[in-house]
Hints:
Layout: H1 2-19, H2 23-30, H3 38-48, H4 52-66, E1 68-69, H5 71-75, H6 89-110, E2 112-113, H7 115-129, E3 133-140, E4 156-163, E5 166-170, H8 172-176, E6 177-180, E7 183-186, H9 197-200, E8 204-206, H10 220-224, E9 228-229, H11 231-234, E10 239-242, E11 247-248, E12 252-258, E13 266-270, E14 277-278, E15 282-284, E16 287-293, E17 301-306, E18 309-316
Parallel strand pairs: 1-2, 11-18
Antiparallel strand pairs: 3-4, 3-8, 4-5, 6-7, 9-18, 10-12, 12-16, 13-14, 13-17, 15-16, 17-18
Amino acid sequence: MKQFFALLIFVSFNIHLQAQDFARVDAKVKEYPAYSSAQGLADKIDSDFTNDTDKIRAAFRWLTLNIKYDLKEYNNPTSKQIRFKYSTEADKQLKLQQFKDEVVDNMFTSQKSVCEGYAQSFKKICDLLGIEAVVIKGYARNTTGEIGTVPTASNHAWNAVKVGLTWKLIDATWAAGYAINNQWKKHFTEYFFNPKPSELLRTHFPDATNWQLIKNPISKRKYANQPIIGQGFFSKNLQLISPNTGVLQSKPTKFLVKNLTKTHTVGYLFKGQKYGKRAAVIIENGVGSFSIDLKGKRNSELYLFIDSEIALEYKIQ
């Protein structure tokens, strides 16, 4: 009976995170000032909210509202590889934590950072709130040229946070906005707060296999061969059914997208084109289908838009 009771608590807590309406939390956090320290923000969150779910949401939302992505640092990194001596494992961990705290302090001071700052800061806030969280290092893709290229080095950082007995994924960096024409566009995307692990693997590949958080982990090769999925897809709670390979043949191709509706406008264009075309979408049993003729488009790229936002990118061979 004791084990059954614990299971009920876990299931309830898990559903609570996925189904909760965070309007109240978000509204309160929008009134927060631009805190200059993680401690100050954590203290405010702790005083305003009583449960871990709301505290996690508040930390995530503050970062997406207040921190600007540092494109200058991304394009011309000034950070250097750190070197230090240590006498024991404890000494090593202490010095590593000092470096991580410096990254967090710099972010709060400047109100801008790259992914490392977002991820380390989210973890630091959780640490101060007594909530277990980790920084996940890995690879993320967002350009068509990366399709088919197996990642060889990490280029991104995001988080996992423990809710009840389960780890949930968080990416405050990608939730805060995106780069377009070498400019940072602030644009909140709800999707990156607790996405399904199997769906996040379309864009994020962790260095450590255990952080895929799925029963049957995928390979780097399978990850690399997927299409690029963009903001216009994530923000609308859509699910790609097919084609799931990022490289298409130059022939008529049918696309299937779950949760696509008649209110969505689907458009497409090929690399080098100035103007696109509208796809004729058929909705049946909650799945939208449309076909695009790729004949004569060998060695090109296909860009799909949903409601004028980039949604899917493919290579054509």
